[in-house]
UniProtKB/TrEMBL annotation:
Native organism: Mesobacillus persicus
Keywords: 4Fe-4S, Iron, Iron-sulfur, Metal-binding, Repeat
Residue ranges constituting the 4Fe-4S ferredoxin-type domain according to the UniProt record: 5-35, 67-98, 99-128
GO biological process terms, semicolon-separated: cellular respiration; formate oxidation
Name of the protein in question: Formate dehydrogenase (Quinone-dependent) iron-sulfur subunit
Amino acid sequence: MATKYVKYVDVTKCDGCRACMVACKNWNDLPAEPQDFLGSMQSHANVTADTWNVLTFVEHENSKGNLDYLFRHSSCFHCTDAACEKVCPENAISYTDKGMVVVDQEVCVGCGYCEQNCPFDVIHLKTYKDENGKEYRKAHKCTMCTDRLDEGLQPACVTTCHTGAMEFGEKDEIISKAEKRVKEIKERYPNAQVYNPQGVGGTHTIYVLAEKPSVYGLPENPKVPTSAVLWKDYAQPIGKAMVGGVAMALAGAFVANKFFDKKNGGQEEDGGGNHE
């Protein structure tokens, strides 16, 4: 079995510099997106088809009555059981051998099912125009820099983090590191926890959070939508089996029909010959 890898984000070490955002834009050649002023340190409200990671900022009154400034590097979670992969009717979304969730732009038809079913709202459609001016759409999101991983490099966002808030490594080692870190910061952050939601089979971007997930705008218990499970795990296999069965039945009928036509035709010829 191939070794699985995860990106580790310790929000308690993040200083909000946004170097991860810049590195992602540069490496993936993503265009700038002018934004309205949001009234805080946060430059974008959420990730988009052209901005694959965003530094979120929250002012939060903690359990001791003090004000905390909470930062979080936000990007695709690369779920082990990914809703986007389940609902894609064209099989344009798949897993790499390291566990990352990627979109094949050549196969994507821009239906939007992935965008509608992602529990983290991190995959979005971008509109293009062909040479005739006709519009079409493609799904985009963080790839975890799979092109860099294939060359033995780490994701661009990780390599540029100057505070050590992000790391990338083997899954079991990183999870152990995250659990140890939570124990270290519990006195200061009583609600500290590892965010690696099991409702989506665990993720390949895990967090050490200082507060409850909802404080950071994250779902407390994200799950793959039931509709996605029914579609991928039940409806699709049954549909394929039915299509296969119908195809076999049609093929059988075609062969049988040809056989009987030939047989009947031969009998008519013989009958006609006996009358001569």
